[in-house]
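Progress against Task 2.4 (sequence-to-structure conversion) is shown through the following example record, which the project officer requested during the mid-term review.
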Amino acid sequence: MNVKKILSITLIGLLSTAVLATSSFAAPSQSAKMGGGKAMSEEQRQERQDLHLERMAAVLDLTEEQKTQIEALRNQKWENTAAQQGKMAELKEELRAMGIDGNYDEARARALANELAAIKADMMVENIRLRSEIHALLTPEQQELTEKLRPFKQDCKGQGCKNKGRCADMM
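Structure tokens generated for the chain above:
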């Protein structure tokens, strides 16, 4: 296997970790509203989480203990995030209704928007905390590898992936 292929596979593992840390913890009601499609079931979320952990384990050569600890951290984050996602959905719905029912109250709209922003900020902090806790579980060699691969991960974020062909080949 050539070096580019190994780096590419490693990149996907790290990318999967980042994606998992930020997106797969969305509560079903929120994910349905955001994407306009069906909500992700608990089973689908768990399957996605398991796949990401498998990729990360393969790329970083995680021990069984590391995998168990990372899974526990992610499950704890999911529990914390689910309630926040539910509250965000309620706030967004109230804001939407305010815009169409003719009962616009700017002070109330600002209060709801500020509450929504505070929840989002808390969730961002939680994501950073999770990444930090996972990083702390890695050996120095695994940490070094993640640092070397970080620039590649940035190229594959979101819809503007600069390496679409390579990223698709690695899936």
